[in-house]
Amino acid sequence: MIDIAYAEVPFLADRDLGCSDWMDVEQQQVDMFADAVADHQWIHVDPVKAASGPYGGPIVHGYLALALFEPLWRSVLAVRGGRSGAMLTDKVRFLSPVRVGSRVRLAASVSSILATADGFRLTVAAQVEIQGMEKPALAVQCRRDVLRDDPIAS
């Protein structure tokens, strides 16, 4: 994890941020996501039927794999005196299914930084990697806001 002071954020431009911690993706998460989005396809929620399917077991919804970006991001970059703001997604490519029971992590880099009225906007390229797999689950190009903590509002 990169842990920096808010004033150091501009120095992240053109920098590889490294990788997050590994995160386990379990069937309970998939089931809860299926309930939340009303997508109960057997390939996601029926481990017995999915075992005889094309992936040999259930797979994670693509949008759940994308949603994991946020908790994974928190173990990539910490900004003292700042906080994460909006994530504006520019491009997502789903590249490989994530089997339930897999471990994933985020690999990220910053290509540019724009100063804004409230802080900084980082242009980020990232991949959600699957442990033991050559091909990542997905690739994301996005903009992440880092906002200045306001001691008056706290």
TrEMBL record:
Alphabetical list of InterPro entries matching this protein: HotDog_dom_sf (IPR029069), MaoC-like_dom (IPR002539), NodN-like (IPR039375)
CDD domains with a match to the protein in the record: NodN
Boundaries of every MaoC-like domain copy: 14-112
Family: Belongs to the enoyl-CoA hydratase/isomerase family.
Protein name per the record: MaoC family dehydratase
Organism per entry: Leifsonia kafniensis
